[in-house]
Amino acid sequence: MTKYPLSYRIIDMHTHMGPEYPLYYPDSDAAGMVKFLDEANVEFIISTPCEDLFIPDAKREEITGAMDRYPGRIKGYYGVFPKADITIESIGDAFIEYPGYAGLKLLPDYHRTNLTDSAYAPFFELADRFNMLVLSHTWGLSMNGETCNSADKVAVILDKYPNIRFLMGHSIQGQIDDAIELAAAYPNAYLDLCDTGRINGVIEKMAKKAGAQKVVFGTDLPMQSTWYILGACLNARIGSEELRLILRENALRILSETGRPVH
Q1: CA gap 256, 61 in Å, rounded
Q2: Residue 161: phi, psi to the nearest 5?
């Protein structure tokens, strides 16, 4: 029996790390994550620790320490909390000190702040100036009825900041067809399979309408297993080259284009 059916390793562009109130994920620290990556044949992940997203004054040691200890296995997003005291200078310093930082991570729904709010503008301006990768949580309608990161808000950002590489986290679940249209229309827009990849037929639709070069592999690890979304990819009716783009090559290309190439 073949344990792993691919001749190359996966790159996961949407993961987390560490504790998240009130949930429990065993082995969710850096060492536990890397152990699992070995089992799942994942080359590296890009991660934002949960506490980094929900605690405004987080000191970021969890991700910076993980990148230092596992430079070939763990890269990081710099989590942007819009109402916290985060300066553009501090982000610039962090990217210089820690080459493992791959981009910025935004969580508009959870922070109750519209993606188009002025609080995010300085960070988007920074990302646009330096052609950075931005992963933002996107959802059509949140559980409390808000539309902080719906398709119309994403379109505004894509129009205003053409130099960023904007990864639509979860591919605007609830408005997935709109997300696919955005990915097809905007050179700087990308679809993320995190959670959304489980929907029957969605990967085929993304590859057909936006192109496989616009789809990246993400899992929400450790909240969801690599095997979960990988199974959806392996069973999707797409070609082997399209599969390789999604699981690996698109991530490498995006990181190279945004000045954070993998050596």
Answers
A1: 26
A2: -125, 75
Of 129, 239, 223, nearest in space to 215 by CA: 239
Domains within the chain, CATH numbers bracketed: 10-257 (3.20.20.140)
The rounded distance, in Å, linking the Cα atoms of 218 and 205 is 17
Other beta carbons less than 10 A from residue 227's beta carbon: 13
How far apart, in whole angstroms, are the C-alpha atoms of residue 247 and residue 19? 27
Preceding peptide of 5 cis, ω within 30°:
no
pLDDT, mean of residues 103-107: 96
- pLDDT tens per residue, range 30-69: 999 999 999 999 999 999 998 888 877 677 899 999 999 9
- 8 neighbors 244 (Cβ within 8 angstroms): yes
This prediction has a pTM of: 0.96
Distance CA(153)–CA(140), nearest Å, equals 10
Give bridge partners of residue 12 from the DSSP assignment.
45
